[in-house]
Design goal:
heterodimer, A: alpha/beta, 8 helices, B: eight-stranded mixed beta sheet, 18 helices
């Protein structure tokens, strides 16, 4: 039995409405949060009495501009933490997962990173990993950690990511993931790779690409057993679709696709 | 002692035991007793009234002594007589069974081979003993080892027998002499019986016929110094690459506290070595040797202790065991009730193992399942199996965090049958919907578990706790707990949501944990019916893979899961199985082959066509059909009698009209047995029991001189009654002199003389 695709946004909207109605502490906009405060406050969730099986963990990484981009907001914190919260709410409704309902941003050189085998990184166009971060991410991926990269556009961004990942996993090429790969049908059958626009483009309608000739593609880095270690969502912005899924002006098909891809990547990452 | 008895009572005790003491008085008994009573009364009266300074108790003593002396005299006058049944000379037969086995070559008490005394006494030149026996009996000599046969004398014995089967030798002698009067059987042996049948079975007909067995034990009771590999316990079949434990029992004399090396060899290759400090003198020592067999097929493992200087017997320093190393891909079903990291890292841990296939069924949402590592697209398409056939195709089942209410009552019972009847392995993992927190109290699964379920955490919560894990002593010696030599000490703590503190009787705890001062069960197992059940009530063994303190190249997590799952499927039966009554026999000896045949639901089939194929060492192939044994459903039996030494392949194939059900094979090793050299000391208790239970006697070469006389009065065979007077026994005279002398002494000291 499969969950009808049409129910996904409905579930998402219902879940979000419930959360908002209950006054859950979901920030109205991550843009209001001071970026340096984010860095200071981003802490590692340790196992304890409130232990959960799954933590949506966001990678804190260094970039060329000292970690801060437009509006003094670090690039790693794009859509943070609203996208994380909204994704987790829907994730818990769609699959029976014991997920921590809150953000969890962890530095790549933090030894505690390994406690969270699912990692999400975005806006990696300016990613410039320190040696400690390279070592940390390499160890993490080699023992079984799973990295999802999202929301970066254009050739130059891809070249930078490829260079950074070649430092982390030397000798492991980036390959395009075929549509018949299990990551595209772990829970939902993905029949085509859709380009998910950011909220502004999505609301406006029309072309979804943020750069000329940017087609969405999904790449991966595989281990010796042909299991995915890294999933790279290029020329697409799944995070914005999660963040703005409740926005009536944001087109439903994009958020539906983004949630389906997100659920598939979580289930694949927790089983392979 | 026997000599003193004979001096006092004229005859040896054995004659009193065989005969009967009667009073052959020529006078009427009443008259005699009356006379003695009168004399007694007179003695009492006269001592009561006689003058003298004796006190009253002294007078009583004097009267008692006098009455006792009169009593002894009266007994002598009543003419006590020993009545014996004595054999009629040359009318009776005696079978003499001579041990012709190899153990008779071992040193005796005097340092010479045990056979030396036997050859001298029963050889062609004859001896006093044989002469004395021959005067009264017709002697029939038999040699015996694995089988018995008539011989003229000990001169034709070769002492090359590889087995001593006392029971069948006794049976054969009794059978051959059943038509003649048989006075007794004499067995000359070291008692190193290693026959297939219990000795007691052969004694019953002898006891019924009243034929006594006289045993002559040769050789020293203990050979020293000597160490022997007494027993090796090892599974008959293992999965290639699986860690297995061999339990080896060593016995020794004169080598207490000595350090020796136990070597395990697979053909020419040395696969394990263990330093052993032997226990106290005469005490057995148990050694557990971890083994990993990497080559598939039938392997002959040799457990050996290199010969020590001056050792009395070196042939008992080694034992061999046949092990079938399978190279199958064992199919395990892992059912997980929710997305969990444990599933991912368990799969990764055994991904490199070519002998394990973990088919994964993960519930991602109600009614929705994610299936991995399937053989066919339809496998588990409907979720968790609903029929026995569907579930029983797996050899083990791993249950993750899935609540009891997910299963129907029939499915829970089917899981119970999977373990109890099919003989599968079950591993239950901890989690938020496992054990008590999963609502398993009162279900069929609770009965299966090796641990008790505690009260679940209140309000549907979880008893979250960190647990520092350590192996128990049993765990350290278990394939699962050894981590290929890796340490447990620096592994980070795990966490659990299920409070499990107690194991059921008979369960074994392999891993235990310290949860804030409370002892927790981390891994326990027990047998349930034909299978085994393991409980692992922690939720994140993957921590041992992912924790920052665990180096990237560390393989302890992989090792643990590989060994755990391999052990889980170890020994799980196939629908068609074959077993032999013995894994090693001598050429010409029959061995029973038993095949067990079941259908896909593991229900015994009695109408299958079962073909036994025996491949000889020469390559010759012999086929025969096995017949249903009638004793049990699905059991088929036959006998294989290998004519030559070597290794035989025994294969069984079962089929019905619908097709072939399955095949199974094993190996049979055929050759001379070294059993004669094990426990090679003279087994006096066995020889004594043999004699006592049949009314005979046990002798050594030093005491055997009385055997001809003892045989005369067994009562067996053609006998005549013989009376022997006892009135003149020295004990009577000594008693009379003693009693009267004591009386006279008392009288003299009291002035009554």
């Amino acid at each position: 039995m499969r969950i009808p695709v049409s129910l996904v946004p409905a579930l998402a909207a219902a879940a979000l409405a419930g959360v908002l109605a209950a006054g859950a502490p979901v920030p109205a906009s991550a843009q209001e949060v001071d970026a340096r405060a984010l860095l200071r406050e981003a802490g590692v969730v340790r196992p304890g009495a409130g232990y959960r099986e799954y933590y949506f963990t966001r990678a804190i990484y260094s970039d060329y501009r000292g970690g801060f981009g437009w509006g003094r907001r670090p690039r790693w914190a794009t859509d943070y933490p609203k996208a994380d919260h909204q994704f987790l709410v829907v994730l818990a409704r769609l699959i029976g997962i014991d997920a921590h309902q809150g953000e969890n941003a962890v530095r790549l050189d933090d030894p505690g990173l390994r406690r969270f085998p699912f990692l999400y990184a975005l806006e990696v166009a300016a990613m410039d990993l320190t040696e400690a971060e390279v070592q940390g991410l390499r160890g993490y991926l080699e023992v079984g950690g799973f990295l999802v990269v999202d929301d970066f556009w254009g050739e130059r961004a891809m070249q930078n990511l490829a260079y950074q990942l070649s430092r982390v996993l030397p000798g492991r090429p980036i390959r395009e993931i075929p549509l018949d790969h299990p990551v595209f049908n772990a829970v939902y059958d993905i029949e085509e790779i859709r380009q998910v626009p950011n909220v502004g483009v999505g609301r406006r309608g029309g072309p979804t690409a943020e750069c000329w000739g940017c087609d969405p593609r999904v790449f991966g880095i595989f281990d010796d057993h042909d299991r995915l270690m890294v999933v790279i969502n290029w020329n697409t912005d799944l995070g914005d679709a999660w963040e703005w899924a409740e926005d009536p002006w944001y087109p439903l098909p994009y958020s539906t696709f983004a949630y389906e891809m997100g659920v598939n990547m979580v289930v694949y990452g927790m089983s392979h | 002692m026997e000599r003193i008895f004979e001096f006092l009572f004229k005859f040896r005790p054995v004659l009193f035991r065989e005969g009967e003491v009667v009073l052959a008085t020529p006078w009427p008994l009443a008259l005699l007793l009356g006379g003695v009573a009168l004399l007694g009364v007179a003695a009492v009266v006269s001592y009561g009234t006689a003058s003298g300074r004796a006190k009253p108790w002294e007078r009583t003593l004097l009267a008692t002594l006098r009455v006792a002396a009169l009593g002894v005299l009266a007994f002598a006058l009543m003419q006590p007589t020993l009545v014996l049944s004595s054999v009629v000379p040359q009318r009776n037969f005696v079978a003499v069974l001579l041990d012709d086995s190899r153990s008779m070559e071992l040193p005796g008490e005097d340092g010479r081979p045990r056979r030396a005394w036997l050859q001298e006494t029963f050889g062609p030149e004859g001896s006093e003993l044989v002469e004395a026996l021959g005067e009264r009996f017709a002697l029939r000599f038999y040699r015996f080892s694995a089988a018995a046969g008539r011989v003229e004398h000990a001169g034709s014995l070769t002492f090359q027998g590889t087995r001593t089967d006392l029971g069948s030798a006794l049976d054969q002698a009794r059978g051959e002499l059943s038509s003649v009067p048989l006075s007794g059987v004499v067995v000359v042996s070291d008692g190193a019986d290693n026959g297939a049948e219990p000795l007691a079975r052969a004694l019953v007909p002898l006891q019924a016929a009243g034929v006594p067995v006289y045993t002559v034990g040769v050789g020293a009771e203990h050979l020293s110094p000597d160490v022997q590999v007494t027993r090796v316990e090892l599974p008959r079949s293992v999965l290639r690459g699986t860690g297995a434990m061999a339990d080896v029992v060593l016995d020794q004399r004169g080598l207490g506290g000595r350090r020796v090396t136990l070597v395990v060899e697979d053909g020419p290759r040395r696969i394990a070595e263990e330093e052993v400090v032997l226990g106290g003198d005469g005490e057995p020592t148990l050694v557990r040797v971890p083994l990993t067999l990497e080559e598939a097929g039938a392997r002959t493992l040799r457990f050996r202790i290199p010969a020590l200087p001056g050792e009395a017997v070196q042939e008992n320093n080694a034992r061999t065991r046949l092990v079938q190393v399978a190279d199958d891909r064992e199919k395990i079903l892992y059912f997980e009730g929710e997305p969990r990291w444990e599933l991912k890292f368990l799969r990764r841990a055994v991904a490199d193992d070519p002998n394990l296939q973990v088919v994964t069924l993960q519930r991602t949402a109600p009614g929705k399942f994610y299936r991995l590592d399937l053989d066919e697209p339809e496998e588990l398409a409907g979720g968790f199996p609903r029929t026995r056939e569907e579930l029983f195709r797996y050899r083990a089942l791993v249950l993750g965090s899935v609540e009891a209410s997910f299963f129907t009552r029939d499915q829970l019972q089917m899981i119970s049958d999977f373990v109890g009847e099919r003989g599968g392995g079950l591993l239950v993992l901890g989690g938020r919907a496992a054990f008590a927190e999963g609502g398993y109290a009162g279900t069929a699964l609770e009965d299966l578990l090796p641990v008790y379920l505690e009260e679940p955490a209140p309000n549907g919560g979880h008893a979250f706790q960190e647990v520092k894990v350590q192996p128990t002593p049993a765990g350290r010696n278990h394939p699962v707990g050894r981590l290929d030599g890796g340490s447990w000490d620096d592994l980070p703590p795990l966490t659990t949501l299920n409070r499990v503190t107690r194991t059921k009787p008979g369960a074994v705890t392999l891993l235990e944990g310290d949860a804030a001062g409370e002892a927790r069960v981390v891994l326990a197992h027990h047998r349930f019916g034909g299978g085994k059940v393991l409980a692992l009530p922690v939720q994140d063994t993957w921590t041992w893979q992912m924790h920052a303190d665990v180096p990237v190249e560390d393989l302890r997590h992989e090792t643990l899961w590989r060994q755990l799952l391999r052990w889980l499927v170890d020994g799980v039966p196939e629908p068609v199985a074959v077993a032999l009554a013995a894994e090693r026999v001598e050429p010409g000896a029959g061995v029973v082959v038993t095949a067990t045949v079941t259908d896909s639901a593991y229900i015994g089939l009695n109408n299958a066509r079962v073909t036994l194929t025996v491949t000889h060492p020469s390559g010759a192939v012999v086929e025969e059909a096995l017949a249903w044994s009638v004793d049990a459903d699905g059991e088929y039996r036959g006998t294989v009698t290998p004519p030559e030494a070597g290794r035989y392949r025994i294969a069984v194939e079962a089929a019905t009209e619908a097709g072939v059900l399955g095949r199974a094979e094993t190996m049979l090793e055929v050759g001379p047995s070294p059993e004669e050299y094990f426990d090679a000391g003279r087994r006096t208790p066995l020889l004594q029991r043999l004699a006592e239970e049949t009314g005979g006697r046990f002798y050594t070469p030093r005491t055997v001189g009385t055997l001809p006389e003892d045989l005369r009065f067994t009562g067996a065979g053609v006998t005549l009654t013989e009376e022997r007077e006892l009135w003149d026994m020295p004990v009577i005279l000594l008693l009379l002199v003693g009693l009267l002398g004591a009386e006279w002494g008392v009288r003299r000291t009291r002035g009554m003389v």
